[in-house]
Amino acid sequence: MPYAMITFRIKPGHEEELTELFGGAPPLESPVVTDEDGQETARLLGTGVFVKDDVLVRLVHYEGDFAGIARHLAGQRHVHIIEDKIVPFLADARDTATSEGFAAFFRNSMMRCVTQSSSETHPTRL
Length: 126
Known about the structure:
Blueprint: E1 3-9, H1 15-23, E2 32-34, E3 40-52, E4 55-64, H2 66-74, H3 77-86, H4 99-109
Antiparallel strand pairs: 1-4, 2-3, 3-4
């Protein structure tokens, strides 16, 4: 199952504030991603957030269509709560108020995947 990494450039010295902010974030409304017809196209399996110095990274573990993930997250209330709260800590301004702006930020800040592996694809799996 694939992973994606989204980077945020942040102002250094705010690791504790960001840790508290993400630690107290409301839960995701739904991990299920659907298309316009209500058919499931993807599923969020988990996320993680990491911070060090001037970089914050969100790890997204998912299955299915990744393009739908950004659209789905753009519509999630909890994501907008976090987005609003991290603005003072960001080194670079961005527009995530609209679905289009959020999707553009998501695409532009995604790290290039070099390799991924799991126990399911390991050659010694029994």
